[in-house]
């Protein structure tokens, strides 16, 4: 299928070697060093850091944020992709461009925007504080809100091209056979997009767990309360607790590696399915 | 179920895809919507199915207005051009889909579904492939599965969009016969869309010729071929040669070509175009009294019982002419290289200067 050849000449091999060297120096070495630094003073230190109250609360907070963010953006992404690919309306192009705002904008700016609107002095925040005595910023809701904002394009962006290429005929066929809107989605649309959907979820989750910029603006950095893992890494590093910082960083790195593995498996699974289908044809 | 379409209009962003179209399909007939791409035939089919809403006009099934009835309640069988099989479901599950989507009360039991699926797959001769997935099927097989799926709910109306469009010539011919046969077996009112004249002629009871959003002619295949209602229909049904020249009331002339015609005063003097079908002329080594149309052989192709010749006019006309002779005539003629031959038309269709069809004429 691929038209790539084996390198033939010495300069082609040099190029390949350079690519490998760059990947090792820029990506692999720092990753290895994270774990090396974490375990530099023995496993006991790592374990004691792992079981410290701050670390446990940071892990809990990070997981809660991810647990809320992923389903929200799963539903939101599917709805958005459905609207953009299944309906023809004025402003459809605009909508599909607006989805990309979180990609284009620096997360810190996103955090500040939320602070301006929902903070104690903000337009909505002040009203909520006065009327309902609810504080969004510098608390869990604020962290979740900015994380949802930052990660909202992933699912939609994965689904839109796929749903566009699949077209609407299968869904039309289902409706003609008497399926309701829900049945059509459940029995026809969803099976067609499930692997892409899972891929979008994996990406969303990775970003939700690792988000630093936007969260740091709205978190308020309250130890044991509003510190997520990435924020804890920075805080411990500033406290000169090297083992602690690298243990937290190692946790994040491990999550990233698992994500990468999942992503590779999903991609492999999708392409092998396609290949199988093609082979069956010939 | 009879289908009636009453003054339908449909526009897409200012472009009129259908403009005041009316059509009557009696119960049990097989009707072909024939037209070039962009003539509105697929849009009409989708409106009958309920997949598109018309801007104006009505659709009636058995004289009951279904214009605003939801797609899923119209209960029409529909076969898509690209089949639109559910790619994640096996052949059997594809066929069973409609039965499984029925409301709980009407849904047949597991065994009943299985029996019905087997019966349908036998009908379309696909019973040995029940476990396969769409990606593992050829075009013709997919087509038959799509048909079985559309028939699962026993629709009283069957709509097919370019049913044989994506298949190769041989499979196409087989499936065409088979569809005709199937239609005689189950007698469901059917409408199919095609851009292939031969297909429409062979399969349909009635042909509906469409062009630019309106209906040009409705009639049996023989009628539309022998008595075309407009220049478009004549033009579209089969190949034609257009001969352009001047007529003086007795002789048609173009460069060195001359034809004596008697149009009984139906054609005025002046510019006169003649349409000649490839099979309505023969060739000779000498001109006739009433026809002097010198040509040179440019190419020939032998296929089946006929020989198709491409002829270059000598000293008249511009384009290449196409003429079909039977093999024996061609063998008897066997002209030499570069020999001048003479075209002898048997029958010609006149087209007057305002673009309408005039009378059919023969050299006098």
Percent range of helical residues of chain A: over 70%
In angstroms, what separates the terminal alpha carbons of chain B? 51 Å
Range of helix content of chain B = 25-40%
Taking all Cα atoms into account, the compactness measure Rg of chain A is 23 Å
* Count of distinct strands of chain B: 22
Contiguous low-pLDDT stretches of chain A (5 residues minimum) are: none
Question: Looking at the structure, what is the overall shape of chain B?
Answer: elongated
The mean pLDDT of chain A is 89
- Average pLDDT for all residues of chain B: 90
Oligomer: heterodimer
Broad structural category of chain A: mainly alpha
Share in β-strands of chain B: 25-35%
How many beta strands in the DSSP annotation of chain A?
Answer: 0
Structural class, from helix and strand content of chain B?
alpha+beta
Short description:
The complex is a heterodimer of chains A (282) and B (364). Chain A has 282 residues and is mainly alpha-helical.
Would you write up a description of this structure?
- The complex is a heterodimer of chains A (282) and B (364).
- With 282 residues, chain A is an all-alpha fold.
- Helices cover 80% and strands 0% of the residues of chain A.
- Chain B has 364 residues and is α+β, with helices and mostly antiparallel strands.
- Chain B has a seven-stranded antiparallel beta sheet, with no helix packed on it. In chain B, strands 6-7-8-3-9-10 form a six-stranded mixed beta sheet, with helices on both faces. Chain B has a five-stranded antiparallel beta sheet with strand order 15-20-17-18-19.
- Chain B has ten helices and 22 strands.
- Chain B has helices spanning 41-49, 71-74, 91-100, 110-123, 139-151, 169-186, 197-203, 221-226, 231-236, 327-333, and strands at 3-12, 15-25, 30-34, 56-61, 64-65, 76-79, 157-161, 189-194, 206-211, 214-219, 241-247, 251-254, 257-260, 270-276, 281-284, 291-292, 294-303, 306-313, 321-326, 341-345, 348-351, 357-361.
- Chain B is elongated, with a radius of gyration of 25 Å.
- Chains A and B meet through helix 10, helix 11 and helix 14 of A and strand 6 of B.
